[in-house]
Recover the amino acids of this structure.
């Protein structure tokens, strides 16, 4: 019976979403209330704070597939963003 309680605890810790594979926080949603997906290629689960840190201070790419992160709507521009990304044409 203890195993059932442990399972319930784990499943309710991150209600409504996936868990970030970097910090174990809830992934959360975008400004448009859609599930946040940092990498449009492999959808490796990364929360927005870890995504923002990786873009600003890390190697600016997905930890799993190594694809360079694109700027998401609401994210500040960083050095290395493509010129088109400077406009409001951000990835959702």
């Amino acid at each position: 019976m203890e195993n059932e309680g442990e399972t319930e605890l784990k499943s309710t810790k991150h209600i409504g979403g996936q868990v970030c594979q970097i910090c174990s926080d809830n992934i959360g949603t975008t400004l448009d209330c859609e599930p946040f997906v940092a990498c449009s290629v492999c959808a490796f689960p990364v929360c927005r704070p870890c995504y923002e840190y990786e873009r600003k201070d890390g190697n600016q790419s997905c930890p799993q597939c190594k694809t360079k992160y694109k700027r998401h709507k609401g994210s500040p521009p960083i050095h290395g963003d493509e010129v088109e990304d400077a406009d409001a044409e951000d990835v959702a």
Observations:
- DSSP finds two helices and no strands in the chain.
